Amino acid sequence: MWNFRNFTIVFFILLLIFNLTAIFACPGENEFLQFFCRNQAGFYITLVSVYFVIPVLLSFFPCLEFHHKPVICRVKTDENVVILTFDDGPDPVNTPIVLDILDKYGIKAVFFIIGKNITGNEELTRQIVQRGHLIGTHSYSHSVMWDFQWGSQIRKDIAMTNALIEGITGEPPRYFRPPYGVINPMVHSGLRGCKLPVVAWSKRSFDTITRDKSRIIEKMTRNISPGDILLFHDTAEVTTKVLEKIILTLQAKDFRFASLDQFIKTNPHA
Fold it and tell me: pLDDT digits over 172-230, tens only?
């Protein structure tokens, strides 16, 4: 499996080879050795650059499981089933609208909520659970620097948010979704021992970026596959405008909406 650990091992093996070659084989008679000996600095700079750049880039693609495994990006099923997920709430304006739409069609979803957004929205947070939906942790602050903390700080952040959610709803969070979907070595370290399945997505609406309703609808209803996990934000007004149309369009394509816990069994009290 090509992951950060194996990538690091290969890096140090190559670094060792470079060092041994520089010490014992330079200058050499072989044409490649001569090139290496003349350009040692370039080889070292390239190697170190690749070691830093590739892991950073792959941090933004959690489904590749380069830094952390497992990451759930879709559920295994042959049925025409999709999973709805919503990030960044609870939002006092948009979350109630989303909940009413889901109630109208009898759909259960997963709400990945931010700890700091619970303050002042405690009753709304309880409603999410009372209406039969699942709650996942999406960090306490969702700071742009969240994934640059030490692993111990990330663990404390997750634990604090979990305790806050359980204290209000009576139910501990079942899942975790990292802010921005970024998983790097620090996040991986922080996830150790938290016992929450990590959930990403297979289709992303980008509803926090675009306000083009037709574009979002087309994107989220085209090329749908069984087991897709759909990402929306219940903080985005445009989501409340397109959600019902997306539901109806997918139902017309013989897709149904399922709850994530039908496919992933977790122990909420682990």
Answer: 999 999 999 999 999 999 998 788 999 999 999 999 999 999 999 999 999 999 999 99
Tokens of 108: 């259960």
pLDDT of residue 266: 62
Task: For residue 253, give Cα distances in angstroms to 80, 242, 256.
Answer: 9, 17, 9
CB 46 within 8 A of CB 40: no
**DSSP annotation of 145:** T
Tell me the three state secondary structure of residue 72: strand
pTM surpassing 0.70? yes
Active-site residue numbers? 87, 233
Bridge partners, 256 (sequence order): 81
Burial 53-88 (b: 16+ CB within 10 A, else e): eebeebbebbeebbbbeebbbbbebeebbbbbbbbb
Instruction: Report how far apart, in Å, the C-alpha atoms of 52 and of each of 14, 45, 87, 204, 260 are.
Output: 15, 11, 29, 27, 35
C-beta neighbour count of 29 within 10 angstroms: 7
**Residue 74 gets which letter from DSSP?**
B
- Residue 238 CB contacts under 8 Å (≥ 6 apart), including other chains: 207, 210, 211, 213, 216
Encode pLDDT of 228-245 as tens digits: 999 999 999 999 999 999
CA distance linking residue 258 with residue 239, whole number of Å: 19
